[in-house]
Amino acid sequence: MAVLESSSTSTQSCADPALIISSDGHAMAKMVDYRPYLPSRLHEQFDDFLKLHKSSGSEEGVSGVKNQAIQTDHEILDAWSKDVVEAGRLDGTSDPARRLYRMEIEGIAAEVLFPDFGLPFEMVPQNAAAIGYAPTLEQAEEGKKAHSRWLLDFCSFAPERFAPQAFIGFEDVDAAVQEIRWAKEAGMKGLVLPYFDEDMPLYHPRHDPIWQTLVELDMLVNSHIATTNTTKRRVRNNAKLAPHTACAFTMFGEEMFFLVHQVLTHLVWGGVLERFPELQVVLTEQGSGWLLGWLESNDFKYEGSFLSHDLHEVMPHKPSEYFQRQVTLGSSIFSKAEIEARHNIGIDKMMLGMDYPHMEGTWGTYKGSTASYLQATLGAAKVPADEAQKLLSENIVGRFGFDLEKLEPVAQRIGPSLSEILTPPTEDYYPRGDVHKPLGMAGR
User: Fold this and answer.
1) Which domain holds residue 117?
2) Using CA atoms, how far apart are residues 427 and 392, in angstroms rounded to an integer?
3) Does the residue 175 lie in any domain?
4) Residue 189 covered by a domain
5) DSSP code per residue over 169-198
6) pLDDT digits (tens, 9 = 90+) for 209-255
C-alpha cells in the first residue's frame, strides 16, 4: 500500500485545530444484535448461547467492572465504575451515533476499528475458562463474518470517519480469499490476523494465496494483541493458583504479549515479507520499545551469529530492512518514554491510538481527556508540531486511506489546537498507567 504524501496538515500552525485519527479503536454489537448477521442454520444454537451468555457472560466485555475487578486496584476501579460505566460512556461501543459523540468530545476525527472480545458465540476469556466453554469451529468462523457485516453497518453511519478491519480465519484458505474479496468490495480497509495452528503457522506456504490476494487488493494486514496469536494453544489465566488475581493477570498478559510479538518474527524469518514484498503490516497495541531490542538482536542473528549464511539466499535482507520496508506500528497509547524514543523507533512508523472503550485508553480514567493525555506525552516530551502531526494523523492517513478533504473540516470543528496538546502539563494527571510506562516494557 503506497504511503500518501503529507498534505496541508504539514503547514498548519500550532494555533490551528489538530487533526487526530486513532489507529486503535474497538466496536462491538450487543450480543443479541448479532443474530440477524448469522446464517439461519445457526440461529437455534445462537439462541441457546444467548441464554448461557446472559447467565455467565458480560455484555460490557473486557471494559466491564466485573472483568476489570480481577486485576485493577480498588481506587482505579471505583473511578472507572463511577466516571465511565455508570456515566454511560461505554455507549459508543455499539451505537455509532454515540461513538461519534464520544469521539468528538475527545477531539478525534476518525478511527481505525477492530473487533474486541465478545464476538458471536464468544465470551471474555476468564468467563469462558470458568465454565469450560469454547465455540465450535463453525460458530467461531461464522461469528467473525457476522461481526464484519455488523461493523460495516456501524460504519455506514459516517463512513469517512472509520476504517473497519475485517476479522477472517485462515482455516479454509479458499474461503478466506473469498471473504477478503468480499471485504474489499464492501469497503473494509484491512484484515486482522487470527490465531494460527502451530502445525500450520502463518508462514506456511498454504497461506500464500491469502497474502497474494491482500497484495492484489492493496489491503493492510493487522495483528492486534489478544486477537492475533502464533498459537491456538489457550493461554490460561490461572487465577485460582496464583497468589493474587492481579498476579495471574500479569502472567497471562506477559505470555499474550510474547506470543503476539512472534508474529513479526514469523513474518520475517518465515519468509512472508520476502515472498510478498508489497505486503504492508501493522502491529497494533503491542508496545514499541521492545522493537529496538528485536531489531538489533535479529540483525545480529542474521549477520554476526553462527547461523548459516546460506539463509541469505532465501532471505536476502536484514530483518530491520524488512521492517523498514513493510511494517508500521499502530501502537495505541504511547508512553512518554516511547515518544521520547520516537526517532530510534521511527517517527514515520508510529501511529497514535486512543483505544476506546478500554480502561487504558486516553479517554477514560483520571482527567479523562485525550488532549490531557497528549499533553502528558507529546507535550512533556516537547515534540515539535511537524512531528506531532505525523504521529496524530499523517502516518495513519497514508496507510488506511482516509480522505483528508472530508476529515479536515471535522478537525476544524472539534480538534484541540496543536498548541494545547503540545503544551507540557502543569501537573501529573496520570500518576499511574501507561503515561509513565518504561520504554522496554512490552505490554501494559
Assistant:
1) 20-436
2) 23
3) yes
4) yes
5) --SSHHHHHHHHHHHHHHT--EEE--B--T
6) 999 999 999 999 999 999 999 999 877 777 788 999 899 889 989 99
